[in-house]
Amino acid sequence: xxxxxxxxxxxxxxxxxxxxxxxxxxxxxxxxxxxxxxxxxxxxxxxxxxxxxxxxxxxxxxxxxxxxxxxxxxxxxxxxxxxxxxxxxxxxxxxxxxxxxxxxxxxxxxxxxxxxxxxxxxxxxxxxxxxxxxxxxxxxxxxxxxxxxxxxxxxxxxxxxxxxxxxxxxxxxxxxxxxxxxxxxxxxxxxxxxxxxxxxxxxxxxxxxxxxxxxxxxxxxxxxxxxxxxxxxxxxxxxxxxxxxxxxxxxxx
Length: 253
Description:
Elements: H1 2-6, H2 8-29, H3 49-70, H4 72-79, H5 81-86, H6 92-115, H7 118-121, H8 127-152, H9 158-178, H10 187-195, H11 197-210, H12 222-245
Helix pairs in contact: 2-3, 3-6, 3-8, 3-9, 3-11, 6-8, 6-12, 8-11, 8-12, 9-10, 9-11, 11-12
């Protein structure tokens, strides 16, 4: 965490890029966007794109911060620091949890800073909904950081990591309902979005934060989305621990 915040370019890029994206797309599509109908209503609501895209931008911030924090795994191995940690008496579980929880904390700080804008965007503020969305943010940040860790651990090149980010992590975010609703997507994309575990995490967070005003239109109850989010977080974190416990073939971990 100390090293991350010392590198101001990473801090700024992890926060400024999503904010600019939210402003440009939000104002550009705000008047032409029609959100899906909330559960129990017959017609679509009048939620503008600035509100609909706000939870998706928070998800993007968590994703970007997770990417920038876990890429240090590759840098640490290249510089020899990780090898020194691996041969020390420190438990490997502590290595994983230190990296994951540190990255998740950084992501949460960025997300909370962006959430300060929410009172100026939301038509009405419910402090209880905001508080209820925080546990979902915590799970989502841990899941994204663990996913970044799993991708970075077997790699030796930061260029390869960025390539994976562009062909896997970014499409995962695009097809989570963060940019456009699942309900209005073509059938092929809708199937992919329903398979994507990030869709359910985003739906749970967006529905809780906005009181159902920014739903993506997936035919799944909020409680099921939360359960899937919990299961995904536990599974991907366990996978990160398992990868570190298993020695690498090159002997560097």
